[in-house]
Amino acid sequence: MKKLFVFTAAIFLLLSCQKETRPNIIFIMSDDHAEKAISAYDSTLLKTPNIDRLATEGIRFENSYITNSICAPSRAVLLTGKYSHINGKRDNRDTFNPDQMTFPKLLQEAGYQTAVIGKWHLKSTPVGFDDWRVLKGQGRYYNPLFYVNGDTVKYEGYTTDLITDFALEFLDNRDKDKPFCLLFHHKAPHRNWMPAPRHIGMFKDTKFPLPETFYDDYKTREKTAGTQDMEVKNMYSGYDMKIHFLEGEREMNTGGGRSTNFDGTNSWKNVYSALTPEQKEVFDSYYDQVNEEYRNANLSGKELEEWKYQRYMEDYLACIVSVDENIGRVLDYLEDNKLDKNTIVVYTSDQGFYLGEHGWFDKRWMYEESFKSPLLIRYPKKIKPGRVDDKFVMNLDFAPTFLDYAGVDIPEDVQGISLRSIFEEKDEPWRESMYYHFYAYPAWHDVPKHDGIRNKQFKLIHYYEIGVWELFDLENDPHELKNVHEDGEYARVRHSMEIKYYDIREEYEVED
Ligand code: SGN
Ligand code: CA
């Protein structure tokens, strides 16, 4: 009897020890958050003290990239660890096939408690989650509709705060005997940049510096960068800038919606009218003044363009301030509940974003600002604080990393690599080039389909439907302003990059 007791106790101890070694995971992803709008990367624009904690206490990646820089496809890559042509979600219009392998499904099978809260955008119902509360479609900034485990529910309030309330609720109510994996996905700072009441107007006295490439003339890239519809100067005065139209006035800008039937005239009116009277009051208390200044100044040309850029930065950055505050709430919760040591906390974005570079907003291109995304990870058990790493990591790598640390076999067809060797500073070989593929055309912002390869010094891009190639020497031209594909001096580089491009397509089984 005594032996049996000792045996049972030993098994129990073993199991509970095992449980403890499996880390919890909180994967925080915001929508369209550019690297330079995080002060751990660059403190010119704003301060993000809470997000920065992850860099101070963990690792900051300087070269984190996305395989396909658009929202829903990026999320499908996260879940599967596979490129879009393999997981089937090439652009926002495709429906994600929920029958395929995803890392949350495998974690759930392995005994993890799994949840997704916030933006989802994959069209099919979340599978592999014990709990899910996801925004309907793109989601609204105020008074959003959520799908809650099957029902549609409308909540009153500011979406970034609500998503965090729900995330904390999940953490509080979870089964405390199991490790958890929480995907905590913000809608902010996606277009049309509506700050929380407490942050409206907070940057009104700040003048933001214009990026060096704001007045790009698109020379040597006329058929590509020169043909898009994502210029700051064409942003909607209503929807983006929050100007109320006068009787009979119409919105003349394309606003990036040239390819669709988007009605710029009514869009701000519709969004504004969905606010509660109290919310409208806060909006009016600041934006009425903006409206008045805009009307009085009667700007045009460069002056109007630069005014739009300032307005864009004001609201975009104010949206990030509430993301940052809310991340602080979650980090505090982890500490207060002694969960911080054994939880992998990731902060990233579904892609990068243009903050005026090349004169743009939005994403999509294989150019650095949108190809890249911020990435900070804290995991005190395995990652020494304050580290910075410059290896080429990709959003393909999240699924294998989480499976690896959860002790689950990584399926053979996963195309990413576990980040373990980087976390644990093991000197193992790492990828030296990256493959990218963007498919969403025709669509908003008119960016042609393209794929390409990047290594340390060079980037080759193929706009295969229009038969255009671009080659950039990133060491000598970091802003990608000079396409040297036709330059004789680069003939050898071009040849070797072309070979590598076809090889990497083969390696990843790209057929389209
Ligand atoms: C909306 C935006 C676009 C944006 C796409 C895709 N227009 O259509 O500017 O590129 O979403 O964004 S809006 O006027 O409706 O805001 S994504 O993050 O979902 O890929
Ligand atoms: Ca996005």
Structural account:
The protein is built from 13 helices and 16 strands. It is an alpha/beta fold. It folds into three domains: 22-193 and 319-437, Alkaline Phosphatase, subunit A (3-Layer(aba) Sandwich), CATH 3.40.720.10; 200-313, no CATH class; 449-507, no CATH class. The chain has a ten-stranded mixed beta sheet, sandwiched between helices. Bound molecules: 2-deoxy-6-O-sulfo-2-(sulfoamino)-alpha-D-glucopyranose (SGN) and calcium ion. Calcium ion binds next to loops.
Strand line-up in the sheet with most strands: 7-6-5-4-8-1-9-10-2-11
CATH topology of the largest domain: Alkaline Phosphatase, subunit A
CATH superfamily of the largest domain: Alkaline Phosphatase, subunit A
Order of helices and strands: HEHEEHHHEEEEHEHHHEHEEEHHEEEEH
Please identify, by name, the CATH architecture of the largest domain.
Answer: 3-Layer(aba) Sandwich
CATH top level of the largest domain? Alpha Beta
Number of helices: 13
Q: How far apart are the termini?
A: 67 Å
Shape summary: globular
Arithmetic mean of pLDDT: 95
- Helix proportion range: 25-40%
**What value does the Rg take, in angstroms?**
23 Å
Largest sheet: 10 strands, mixed
Write the layout of secondary structure elements.
Layout: H1 2-21, E1 24-30, H2 49-57, E2 59-61, E3 64-65, H3 71-80, H4 84-87, H5 103-109, E4 113-118, E5 131-135, E6 145-148, E7 151-154, H6 159-173, E8 180-185, H7 264-273, H8 277-297, H9 301-336, E9 343-349, H10 368-371, E10 375-378, E11 387-389, E12 393-394, H11 398-406, H12 420-423, E13 434-438, E14 450-454, E15 458-463, E16 468-473, H13 491-507
Bound molecules: 2-deoxy-6-O-sulfo-2-(sulfoamino)-alpha-D-glucopyranose and calcium ion.
